[in-house]
Write a structure and sequence with these properties.
The structure holds 2 protein chains of 2 kinds. By secondary structure, chain A is mainly α. Chain A has 7 helices and no strands. Chain B has one domain: 7 Propeller (Methylamine Dehydrogenase, Chain H). Chain B has 2 helices and 33 strands. Classes of the chains: A mainly alpha, B mainly beta. Chain B: It comes from Streptomyces paradoxus.
């Protein structure tokens, strides 16, 4: 890498790495070690082609999303993982109940699969429409929709306070039907 | 609670997570550069390629049902392909069975998918014989990595849900499965989620696994998983692992950007005691084994394209040759005595590990993936009996090149489209006798390349 590109990379990391690490923390369900690993991998890929990338942050984010859903990465043993950062506590009774719900929800988000968590973060933290999530992850819109649906269903199971789906909105989630082997 | 309300709660929760205390470390640039430097050699040689693509293949190329020019010998190959007894062309699309990858052993395919950690498939017919269900979720790019003496070895998620305060929190188990009936014989927890070829491998009378810590290898009894011995190395040292003729070796270097040398250690298969075989200069990256030799690559210059390939035998005999590449490679694999590489420009090259000579460079004959989209190329496979190296493109195109000359001797196509494509997975090409098994996601196609005739 040329010196000017290296300086530009260094400047980018100084400016954006904390924001990107926070996104990685959400993507990894609060595992700080895994989050830094994920960010390092994304920056490493970006570093190698820095001069050719037009939108550096978009590129790094895309690598993080895809890396998270597509590949097993080195991750520390569970005993070595840091405890997820928890939401702040409320002060009055309502706020306390809300806070408890958030804590339970955050813990439940950590129990989603990597694919599900990536879709949830992109849809509800990044507030991206389904089509953009699909483009970022390289999958059909229908997959994003069904993954989001299954994620919310799983959260309802893990956090009973969310209650069941109303009958009117209960829909059959999209699912694959295994087929017989074709000969 | 309505869906909209749950979505709102999720949104609030994600935005309320106290991320203020999360700050990137000040030495992140140095960490990234140092880490990249360690991987530079393998990246230059194309060994580290992120693969993510959805197949957009066209028509399955059996008989004349495919596109014009499919499944046809371009030139006579050295030897015609003949199918194993009882084999018929088959294809299968069974979501959950094989997205993570497959292994061929005997007349069986052992696969891992989203629903099953291991599936046994009859390689002759495509019939599913037994399954081992996943723990919680199945994704990634791991696959059963070995089979021997009626036992299949694979990975699965570690779960601590049966422990008093246990819950699924990631982690990986090494798993042994009875090849006859799919019974799980034993599992051993691994210290990290590394499911690459370095995580575990077969050695003489044991499974050599990177457990119970990241700086330890253990020899595990193949039938019980019990530890026979273990060998650990110092903090600040990284050790790559290889097995030659059943004997385990470590290639250890200081974990710094420019280590002085790489020690080659031989571990006694019975006791695990280490003996230093030789020391090689600088950081050497293991890229594979060829017969009774380890194949290593190291940078000679500073531009990353001027490399040196070294082969080291178990007794420390070594031979080094310069290896020049032009730009990053999409894939590179040690196959027999050859190092087969494919450039992003679609040129395949063969290099002799014995003589150190570049043998040929020819068009690979399949479409190249999009480099910027982090897509990669399936590893090629070689039929030594036919003398052909086969490649699989992202779109299902197949190409066979003469191993001696690089001339295209066959091309074909496999329809690897799935009815409802999901998130991208790694395509894979396998050889069952002379039969090719092409896989992308849950779609598997088994076909005989009509070469030599």
């Amino acid at each position: 890498m040329e010196a000017s590109s290296h300086d530009e990379f260094r400047e980018f990391v100084a400016m954006r790495s904390t924001a990107l690490l926070r996104l990685a923390v959400l993507l990894t369900g609060g595992d700080r070690h895994a989050a830094e690993d994920l960010l390092q991998i994304a920056l490493m890929k970006a570093y190698g082609r820095w001069a050719r990338i037009e939108q550096h942050e978009a590129y790094v984010r895309q690598v993080m999303y895809r890396q998270q859903v597509n590949r097993w990465r080195l991750r520390r043993h569970r005993a070595e993982t840091t405890v997820p950062v928890l939401p702040e506590s409320g002060t009055d009774a309502d706020a306390g109940a809300e806070s408890e719900l958030r804590i339970a929800l955050w813990a439940a988000l950590g129990r989603l699969s990597k694919r599900q968590r990536a879709v949830v973060v992109l849809r509800y933290f990044e507030d991206l429409p389904e089509a953009e999530v699909a483009a970022l992850l390289g999958c059909p819109v229908g997959t994003v929709r069904s993954t989001a649906h299954r994620s919310l269903a799983k959260l309802r199971v893990l956090v009973p306070e969310l209650g069941p789906e109303g009958p009117a909105e209960r829909v059959q989630p999209l699912s694959y039907t295994p087929k017989e082997v074709q000969r | 609670m309505t869906t909209e309300r749950v979505e709102e709660k999720v949104r609030e929760t994600l935005n309320a997570v106290a991320l203020d205390g999360v700050r990137a470390p000040g030495d992140l640039v140095e960490k990234v550069v140092r880490r990249r430097s360690r991987r530079r050699f393998s990246q230059a040689a194309g060994a580290a390629v992120a693969v993510a693509a959805i197949s957009v293949g066209a028509v399955f190329g059996f008989g004349d049902a495919g596109r014009a020019g499919q499944d046809r010998p371009v030139r006579p190959a050295a030897s015609p392909a003949t199918p194993p007894e009882g084999w018929k062309p088959w294809q299968s699309s069974s979501p959950g069975d094989s997205e993570r990858g497959c292994l061929v052993d005997g007349s069986a395919l052992y696969c891992s998918g989203r629903t099953y950690d291991t599936v046994k498939i009859d390689a002759n017919t495509g019939e599913r014989l037994w399954t081992v269900e996943v723990n919680r979720e199945g994704d990634g790019i791991d696959r059963p990595f070995a089979a021997r003496d009626g036992v299949v070895y694979a990975f699965r998620n570690h779960t601590a849900e049966n422990q008093p305060d246990g819950d699924y929190a990631g982690g990986t188990d090494l798993m042994a499965v009875d090849a006859e009936n799919g019974d799980v014989l034993w599992t051993v927890e691994m210290p990290q989620d590394d499911r690459t070829a370095q995580a575990a491998m077969l050695m003489d009378g044991a499974v050599l696994a990177n457990t119970p810590s990241v700086r330890t290898v253990s020899a595990l009894d193949p039938l019980t998983g019990k530890e026979k011995w273990r060998y650990s190395w110092d903090k600040g040292t990284v050790c790559q692992r290889a097995v030659l003729g059943g004997v385990p070796y470590l290639l250890c270097a200081r974990d710094v950007e420019k280590p002085d040398g790489t020690d080659v250690l031989r571990l006694d298969p019975a006791t695990g005691s280490a003996t230093k075989v030789t020391t090689l200069p600088g950081m050497q990256q293991l890229i594979g084994t060829s017969g009774d030799r380890m194949v290593l690559i190291a940078a000679r210059g500073t531009d990353g394209g001027d490399l040196r390939l070294t082969t080291v035998s178990g007794s420390g005999e070594r031979a080094s040759h310069p290896y020049r590449i032009n730009g990053p490679q999409a894939g590179s694999d040690v196959v027999g005595d050859r190092l087969i590489s494919v450039s992003w420009q679609g040129k395949a090259s063969a290099y002799s590990l014995t003589t150190g000579k570049a043998l040929w460079t020819r068009p690979v004959g399949v479409g190249m993936p999009d480099q910027d989209a982090m897509q990669g190329l399936a590893s090629p496979v070689v039929s030594t009996r036919q003398g052909v190296v086969y490649f699989l493109g992202q779109d299902g195109d197949l190409s066979g090149l003469d191993l001696r000359t690089g001339e295209q001797v066959w091309r074909g196509h496999a329809d690897l489209r799935t009815p409802r494509p999901g998130l991208a997975d790694t395509p894979q090409l396998l050889l069952y006798g002379d039969v090719l098994v092409a896989r992308n996601g849950s779609k598997v196609v088994s076909l005989l390349p009509r070469t030599g005739g």
